[in-house]
User: What shape does this take?
Amino acid sequence: MRSLLSVCLALLSLGLLTLYSLLGTGAWRQGAYALLGLGVMLALSRVHYGRWKTLGGWAYGLALLCLGLVMVPGLGHAANGAQRWVSLGPLGTFQPSELAKLGLILVLARILEGPPRLLAALGLLAGPFLLTLMQPDLGTACVLLAITLGMLFVSGASPVYLSGLVVSGLAVLPHILKPYQQDRLLVFLNPEHDAQGVGYNLIQSKTAIGAGGVWGAGLTRGLLSQHGFVPENHTDFVITAIGEELGFVGCLGILLLFALLLALLWRFSARATSRFGALLVSGTLVMLGFQVVINLGMTTGLVPAVGIPLPFVSHGGTSLLMNFAALGIVASVARTGQRGKRVEAPTGSWDWAA
Assistant: This one.
């Protein structure tokens, strides 16, 4: 628990410093969410994770309800051409798709305790996946898909079947994407083709990271970061500000901290005393690991830009709260694992329809 908390605090501190450099006093709101998130993590770490076998269904159902409310006029809040938030009046906004990630992990862990059940898992994925795509939010939809495939694999599903699902999804993808999403998927191959349009973010992102050199220009001193040349550099492209102002050393520090976090989750999963606990931790590992890889990849031009924040670092209150909640449940699994026997490796026959 202490090691997990220490890594989270280090990531959080680096993120808050960067956001303060970019937003000034506007970062205090993120700081308030951070304190609330830490409280949620500590509270959930004291709740036995077995209770989520029942409560997980409620969390999943609440996420679906809130995803539906996003589409209701007067309740749904739109920004940058997407309607992804529920308005909470003076309290701000809430992003239900972040709750959907955690809710999906909880219900998948419950149904995958026994033999892997493909159709049941895909059925649980379908609701939040389709509602998220309608917003549109391709990035979160990809995270939901990754969580499902990852947890199916951990539960013992055949890699052949999972590979078939991936190939089928890639074949369907061009037919469901909006034109601007198709442009984003293609422009990373040659961003200079539309340097003032779709390719602008990627070009500026790579320029800012390169400008930081080894040690960076220093907090609040990044020319591109401080003068708005990199759009969304406090959310999805926050690593560009870290690269320009803290340099290669800052980026390396972020990578090492995330590597340590994921290694801890891997160890907790291996030491879990039940299949349910192991799947909860594995789902969280996939959720965070996928977001880290895709976020860093899209800001450096290695993968298409799909709009995925960097966990614990990017600006966003709902994302921060849900990530801390997930780690609180992980901490509960880890505490139990310290006292009990390690769970057997996932086995069992492959069941398509159960």
Remarks:
- Residues 2-337 form one domain.
- The radius of gyration is 20 Å.
